[in-house]
Hints:
It is a single chain. It is built from 15 helices and 13 strands. It is α+β, with helices and mostly antiparallel strands. Strands 1, 2, 3, 4, 5, 10 and 11 form a 7-stranded antiparallel β-sheet that branches. A two-stranded antiparallel sheet has the order 6-7. A two-stranded parallel ribbon has the order 8-9. Strand 6 and strand 7 form a beta hairpin. The longest helix is centred in the N-terminal third of the chain and has 22 residues, at about 60-80. The radius of gyration is 19 Å and the shape is globular. The two termini are about 35 Å apart. Keywords: ATP-binding, Ligase, Nucleotide-binding. One of its GO terms (molecular function) is ATP binding. One of its GO terms (biological process) is modified amino acid biosynthetic process.
Amino acid sequence: MSELPTVGVEEEFLLIDPQSGEPDPRSAEVAAQAKRRGVELQLELSSCQVETASSVASTSAELREDLLALRRTAAQAAEAVGVRLLALGLPPVTPHKFPVTDTPRYRQIGALYGMVAHEQGISGCHVHVQVPDRAAAVHVSNWLRPWLPSLLALSANSAIYRNAETGYASWRSVLWRRWPAAGAPPFFPSLDEYERTVRMLVDTGVILDPDMIYWDVRASATFPTVEVRVADVPATVAETVLLATLIRAAVMTALQERDDIGRLAPAALRAAYWLASHDGLSGRALNLFDDCKAVPAREQLSALVRRVRPALEALGEFDFVVDELERIVTQGNGAMRQLRAWRQREDVRDVLEEAAAATLSGVDS
């Protein structure tokens, strides 16, 4: 592995009907249109979603340009089909259930997991960072555990669901944790213990295969990367790039600090997750390093920046992260903007218009 690890990002998007605002199950058509434009979109469990995957990037600038181009093409493909592409953690307007994509594996998941699968419609962001091997990925997972709530708060983008305020900045993360291997990853003392746990889940039929390890951090089974999956899909490319850069620096820091710091009381980590889901960026966070004291979420994010500052400086990204974090704190992340739009007149159309503008913010600049 090179001294500075590379990074890649997957973003999941919602497809909606422009008139009703409801999720529209035409992902296969959108993917076909995107392929004609030279972009491969992945199909998700719900046929109301598509996913983009960036190229491997060495700098935040490279990643930004790639993500902007991918959003542009995906949005154009959606428009050609007659639907709209939105970066939202959950659809503000929902059907009774979401159609499952018609593939053998997705049909099997739909049959086995029932309403957990049929109420999916969940869009996240997955950041992949290069690591030396799977053992290193497990160490990184342990190290990241206390910081995962802060990354969730930063990206929160699912405050409106079923035509109502949810009371949470990230309702997506609450729904997502219903899967049997989702949410905060357990602490694993070794790669062997990690792999034994995965085998147990598969052998008992709790999950179909290792691809259903949905923990918020997981070791890749095929590539020398660690995948951080804690985030709602951010509203804007700028927020995604900030998130990915922070995660990249955190992975670098974890690899430098070989002592695991992720041994936490389960109740404390669960409480920190709940608070991050509920309050998001605008409220409180639990400082898991100081007797679980409640502190402003922005203060806890600043603590993360300080902790990974040497790595950010090595990447040449420290000033970028500080400036972007200040901008997002001032302007609001996705959840905060959703709530501002909703509270004008409690009309979901305002939320959809806000999300549409954020999804393509910067695309044509």
